[in-house]
Amino acid sequence: MPTARKLWSVMGVGALSAALAAAPTTAHAQVPVLCSETALVNAINGANANGGDTLLLTPGCTYTLTSAHGSASDGPVGLPPITTPITMLGMGTNITRDPSASAFRILEVDGTANVPGTKGQLNMTGITISGGNAVAPFPGGGIADRGGAVSLTAGSVTGNTAIAGGGIYVDNGSVTLMTSSVTGNTATNSGGGIYVNSGAVNLLVSKVNGNTPDNCAPLGSVPGCTG
Known about the structure:
This protein is mainly beta. The chain has helices at 4-11, 13-22, 37-50, and strands at residues 29-33, 53-57, 62-65, 70-72, 75-77, 85-97, 107-110, 121-130, 143-146, 149-153, 156-158, 161-164, 168-178, 181-183, 186-190, 194-204, 207-209, 216-217.
């Protein structure tokens, strides 16, 4: 089976260079991540321990999470919470929760405003986050930004569920979506796509639509997001 590094090489140096240019250069080493749940969990744990890394996810891979690998004050998380500057580079890559698994959100990014001693920054390119289901009464089914910074380029957040912020929940953090989409997510309360408790969300050539019962909440919290 080809390694992640070989697959990136086959897909082209130009594509990798473009992805690296799109992501802030805050991480340290470039680490290839094989197409498995265990490999991704271990890579994130290693990156947190190193103070940040760039993770080269396997192009076209679906990383299926069968259990939670992290916990926080607001419920279980599929992947270890991001506490350092980490870049994830994908290419048609999906990170999803196994439908038969217990409920958990997919990703959480922790910053010092909410979790003292952390400095989480997550920069993703070419990745879809799907199938997250935050345990009630906690928000953020796909991504919970708890005082950190999140950017998503050429990716999507879809098919996630929570009481609020079915796709993305922001509390004291910042989220930037570039040529990306937040669609088909569900909240049992409000903010089917994005819920902003505090912080800022920037949409750059991106769309938030087709979420239930609404796209963004509170009304007017995300410039350019309606309905």
